[in-house]
Amino acid sequence: MRTLWKGAISFGLVHVPVKMYTATEDKDVKFNYLHEKCKTPIKYERICPTCDTTVPPEEIVRGYEYEKGRYVILRDEDFEKLPLETARSIDIIDFVELEEIDPIYFDKSYYLAPGDGGQKAYELLKSAMKEANKIAIAKVVIRSKEAIVALRVYKDAILMATMHYPDEIRSVDLMPELNYQVKINETERKMALQLIGSLSEHFHPEKYTNEYRQALLDLIQAKIAGEEIEVAPRPETGKVVDLMEALKESIELAKTEKERRQAQKEQTEEKPRKKRVRKTS
After folding, report:
1. Nearest to 201 by CA among 249, 251, 248, 258
2. Mean pLDDT by groups of 10 residues along the chain of 281 residues
3. CB distance 54 to 45 below 8 Å
4. Residues facing residue 162 across a β-bridge
5. Per DSSP, what are the bridge partners of residue 54?
6. Most buried of 65, 116, 123, 232, CB within 10 angstroms?
7. Structural domains of the chain in order of their starting residue, each with its CATH number
């Protein structure tokens, strides 16, 4: 993995040198746009419409539009002048319970590894957070932007997740479709709870796979091999006419599926036992 950032975690007077690595990766199937006639990849060039020329990367600068058509230019040295301690460190502000944070706030995750000479301080922070069962809320500057982040212990490492600020979360009140009034009867409520109970399991992330991506890759391989593409029939889905009937059928289906998975699990875990044969002289 490539190091993305070097700095230190700072809490109180303690500084923990760390290196940052990306903890997740995008495995979506990527496509190039081609000219259908000659199958050549389409180029996307940075062209200045005023000069009518292609602009090289070294001539591209960042500009903030403070009035229509008027910009103030900011260069790398300008960002270096910002009086922020978080430009060089991950500054811990609070320690909180993970359960207090709604998942909507989390954005992207990064691994933090101990920097040169920081192994002891890193292990101290990690073990203390684990024993206290707390996560840390901190601030850090990444790519010219100050981010609020959450630090927590993940397996043998400290994980840093960037977070959205509260003013970046759009209000649900912006959706007029939520202004409705309906009445749920007690029987429907109980059956819905029963269905949730039937579908409830412990979280095992390995069971969730990207079936669409796999089907897409299979389709690509079939096209490469020149095979004829077979379209699998899709199950018919009728309109839900009766909510109660739909709940009943869903509960039965969930029960059947749960029993099937349990039987499959037991079959997988069952090991064939061989009888030991004693040798006789």
Report:
1. 258
2. 86 84 80 81 84 85 83 77 65 94 94 93 94 94 84 96 92 88 89 87 82 78 72 54 76 82 77 50 43
3. yes
4. 149
5. 47
6. 123
7. 5-27+81-168 (2.40.290.10), 181-229+243-266 (no CATH)
SS3 197: helix
71 pairs with which residues across the strands?
65
Ramachandran category for residue 39: left, alpha or beta (phi over 0 → left; psi -120 to 50 → alpha): left
Yes or no: say if 182 and 243 are a contact pair by the CB < 8 Å rule: no
Q: What are phi and psi of 22, to 5 degrees?
A: -65, 130
- In the numeric block, which tokens belong to residue 50? 């005023």
How many residues are given for the chain? 281
pTM tops 0.85, yes or no: no
Strand partners, 138: 92, 149
Distance, CA of 143 to CA of 8 (rounded, Å)? 16
Cβ atoms of 91 and 146 within 8 Å: the answer is no
